[in-house]
Write a structure and sequence with these properties.
single chain; 345 residues; alpha/beta; Rossmann fold; 2 domains; 12 helices; globular
Length: 345
């Protein structure tokens, strides 16, 4: 494709490397957008940690993510990073922010338009910032995760690199949980589903709530029926998917998007997810998994896994949740912004 004249800055978080080696959903999406734009001829600069990997221009003032190097002060890293982006704003035609509410505080100090992808509202306490800057440009990652009054230009579903998760043609025996070890993600409910169904469960992810892990997860780990393997990267995820009959996603709060749902489906693994938030947008009930309301429904859904067509799971991800589909949607959003900005001049 012909090179684009517009210059785009993609602002990624600095909690983890972009793309992350294990955990880091926002960094994953920022990376996928960056690489997808470069592949389609855009002039992109990625603002991320210095150890990030990209085909775009990399601009970094923070060596490593503050979650990867605990000697780094998170606030110092964040404000060095954010100020660097906006001090260079005049060099770009658009800043595409994946930095939640903090980047908004800089947005009116520059003439360059700022597009914010809202990956989720972490707390009601941050909403005054969004309300102050509600007339900016916003994209939601699901129709279910929106705040009334924000100037949304579109919903753009997160896209994954489908080549990273090849179709696993046959099902294994394990149930798999992938995600943060935190009450919000319902690991304790996944354990209960495994116990009631008599199926082995493999748990993978970072421990974000130590007390929760110690009291509601660790006592059940026996290395046989319930196993915990820690944080995992792409290769380890695929190894889990190869032995999986289903992914359990027993979230206790509305899901914002759920990258792991798309990753599992891409590998042909159906997902059993609580019907909260975006799960019904990512999972097609009865085709790529089952939406449930409690543990008992999840156990009953396991009895219908043989009805799932693993190839259909894979094909739906390619259609709706690929990097290419996501980047094409963002190109349309960018075009809208450039048109609006041209009319204001």
């Amino acid at each position: 494709m012909d090179a684009r004249k517009e210059r785009v800055a993609v602002l990624s978080p600095v909690a983890w490397r972009t793309p992350p080696q294990q955990y880091g959903a926002w960094e994953t999406v920022a990376s996928n957008i960056t690489e997808g734009l470069v592949a389609r001829g855009w002039d992109v600069t990625l603002f991320a940690t210095a150890n990030s990997v990209t085909a775009a221009h990399l601009h970094a003032v923070v060596d490593k993510g503050y979650e990867e190097d605990r000697s780094v002060d998170p606030k110092v890293a964040e404000y060095l990073h954010l100020s660097e982006v906006f001090e260079h704003a005049a060099e770009f035609d658009l800043i595409h922010s994946h930095y939640d509410f903090m980047a908004l505080a800089f947005s009116r100090l520059v003439r360059t338009p700022v597009l914010t992808t809202v990956h989720g509202f972490s707390s009601p306490q941050i909403m005054p910032v969004y309300e102050k800057y509600r007339d900016g440009y916003f994209v939601s990652v699901s129709d279910s995760d929106r705040s009334a009054g924000l100037n949304y230009l579109a919903t753009v579903y997160n896209g994954i690199d489908t080549s990273l998760y090849p179709l696993q043609p046959t099902a294994g025996d394990n149930l798999v949980f992938l995600g943060r070890i935190h009450p919000d993600k319902g690991v304790h409910l996944a354990i209960e589903v495994a116990r009631l169904s008599g199926r082995p469960l493999v748990i993978a992810g970072i421990i974000q709530d130590t007390s929760y892990f110690e009291t509601q997860v660790k006592p059940h780990i026996d290395g046989c029926r319930i196993s915990y393997v820690g944080p995992v990267g792409v290769a380890e995820k695929n190894a889990l998917f190869a032995r999986a009959s289903a992914l359990l996603h027993m979230n206790t709060i509305p899901e914002r998007f759920g990258l792991v749902l798309a990753e599992a489906n891409c590998a042909g693994v159906p997902a059993i997810a609580m019907d909260l938030g975006s799960c019904r947008e990512v999972i097609e009930h009865g085709r790529t998994g089952f939406l449930v309301n409690d543990v008992k429904e999840a156990v009953r859904a396991l009895e219908h896994l043989s009805e799932m067509d693993r190839r259909s799971c894979h094909q739906r991800v390619q259609q709706y949740f690929s990097v290419e589909t996501m980047v094409e949607a963002y190109e349309r959003v960018y075009a809208t912004i450039f048109d609006l900005e041209a009319k204001r001049r």
